[in-house]
Each structure stands twice: as structure tokens, then as C-alpha cells.
Amino acid sequence: MSAKIINGIELSHTLRTDVAKRAAALTAKGQQPGLAVILVGDSQASQVYVRNKIKACEENGIHSVFEKYDAAMSEAELLARVDALNHDPKIHGILVQLPLPAHIDANKVIEAIAAEKDVDGFHISNAGLLMTGQPLFRPCTPYGVMKMLESIDYPVRGAHAVVVGASNIVGKPQAMLLLQAGATVTICNSKTRDLGHHTRDADILVVATGKRNIVTADMIKPGAVVIDVGMNRDDAGKLCGDVDYEGALKVSGWITPVPGGVGPMTITMLLVNTIEAAERI
Ligand code: NAP
Questions:
Q1: pTM for this predicted structure
Q2: Using alpha carbons only, what angle is made at residue 233 by residues 57 and 6, rounded to the nearest 5 degrees?
Q3: Splitting the chain (281 residues) into consecutive groups of 10 residues, what average pLDDT does each group show?
Q4: d(Cα 255, Cα 3) in Å, to the nearest integer?
Q5: Which of 118, 120, 228, 242 is catalytic?
Q6: Ligand 1 centre and the CA of 110: distance in Å?
Q7: CATH number of 140-263
Q8: 30-114 is classed in which CATH architecture?
Q9: What are the boundaries of each domain within the chain?
């Protein structure tokens, strides 16, 4: 068997066309959607992510503001910037790029973002709304994964979904979205005994650990959908996921590549969330 590829670039293109139309309609009414992105510090990886987000806004008619600050910025200064953006009528979405320098309490900063502008969906009230089945914003990466499953018409209802990774930004909200779509969900973490025992029973396997090759072909149920969220570097410095891609291709029914899978979808869903925020005004 050779898996079919779920192409995140192609799917993003389709979804971004819709984003651009909705942005144009809002702009025509004098309400151009706006996203503010704050970056503190000089992390190369964060700079690349932020640049891609800003570029995606520009390409799709979303007004963007990029604020870059020195790593020495104080927590109070950052909170003041967030507060100013909360009150800026041109800004509908605020994203503070994580991680933040160690002297800044990231939870405090996220809680300072107005919940209705929290397009990352990380604010505690948005996490609660998601948990109780009334999401205001779905966190971008898990939201993108759900769109990928939708794009292949996968019958999520009744399927066994296994999520490997339980972070607040990927694994936990992913599990919630799958549960709400009717899947039976297993969540694995670093303490899970015999990971393969769980993954081999998955119809849908979402892997988000940041551990290269944590899932190998022998851990995948034949025909399963494998969604690889991980972003790692291989020995040659090339971007790769958490799944042994070449091995998994031979066993799974569907698979997402890295790069070109979940990554572009995350940015696309940030645009969608920004549009949704602007449309609610
Ligand atoms: P994280 O906060 O470090 O969380 C990693 C999770 O994986 C934790 O829940 C951890 O378990 C679990 N884990 C670690 N080792 C494990 C093991 N051996 N078996 C089972 N579970 C294990 O990472 P994250 O922010 O969720 O990100 C995960 C990966 O996705 C990273 O590679 C990140 O770069 C990538 N990512 C990609 C996108 C994208 O757009 N493509 C977006 C976000 C993140 P514990 O809870 O027990 O510690």
C-alpha cells in the first residue's frame, strides 16, 4: 500500500482564496480585518514563523501590524502593548509569538489578550469554551488538522483517534476537537506505557511531540490516517516531522508530509480566525 498524501499547501490555497474574499468584503464595508503579531527576542525560528504569518496576511487582504521587541523587554511593557492593541479598533486578532523570554510569564500575557481577539485560541476562557463545546476560536494547528480530515471526507464519527502529545496548544485541543466530532479519543504523553499498543489501534493518528521518528511503520494500523504535526530537523538539517515518513507511506492510508502538511494549515487557520474575529464586530 502507498498512502495518499494530504497536501497542506493545496488545501491552504483553497481556504485562503475564501479568506481573501471575506477580507475583501469586510474591507469594502470599511472594516478591513487586522492582525497584530508581537515578537520578543531574536529566535531565528520564531522570526521565520512570524514572517510567514505577516506575508500570508498581506497576500490575502488582512491588515497586519508587526511589533518586534528586544529580548530585554519587561513583562510590564509587553502587557502595556497588549492592552493598547486590545483597544485598537483596527486590530481584530492579537498573537504573541511563543516562546517568550524566561523573565516574562507567558500565561499572564496570554490572559491579558482580550478573549475576542485571541486568534490563537490559547486564552483560558477560550480553552474553557472549547472544552465545553462552544468554541470562540479553535487553536490554529488542531483546527487545521480537522480541516485536513474534512478535506478527505474522513468519517471521524465513531473512529478511534489517538493523539500523541498533550500540550495545551496542540495535543489537548486536538483531542477535544476530535471528541466533539464524534471520535473515541486516546491521548498519549511522555509517560504512556507501550506507545505502539495505542497507536496501532488508531484509525486517525495525530502525532505532536517534537520527537523525530517517535512513530515508525510498525506502530501504524494499515490504512490509518496519519497526521504529523511535529517539526524537527534531521541530521542534515532538513525539516522533518515526528513520524518515519518513508516507512509510514507504505502502511497508512493517508498521510501528511513535513514540510507541506500541517505547517501551512496552521497559518491558514490563523487567517480564518482573524476573519471570524472581524466578522463578529
Ligand atoms: P510540547 O509542548 O513540547 O509538548 C510535547 C508533548 O509530547 C507533551 O505532551 C509530551 O508529554 C509529549 N511527548 C513527549 N515525548 C513523548 C513520548 N516519548 N511519547 C508520547 N508523548 C510524548 O510540544 P508542542 O508545542 O505540542 O509541539 C509538538 C510538536 O509539534 C513540535 O515539534 C512543534 O514544533 C510542532 N508544532 C508544529 C506546528 C505546525 O504548525 N506544524 C504547530 C505547533 C507545534 P508530557 O505532557 O508528558 O510532557
A1: 0.98
A2: 55
A3: 94 98 98 98 95 97 98 98 98 98 98 98 98 97 98 98 98 98 98 98 99 98 98 96 98 98 98 98 92
A4: 6
A5: 120
A6: 19
A7: 3.40.50.720
A8: 3-Layer(aba) Sandwich (3.40)
A9: 30-114, 140-263
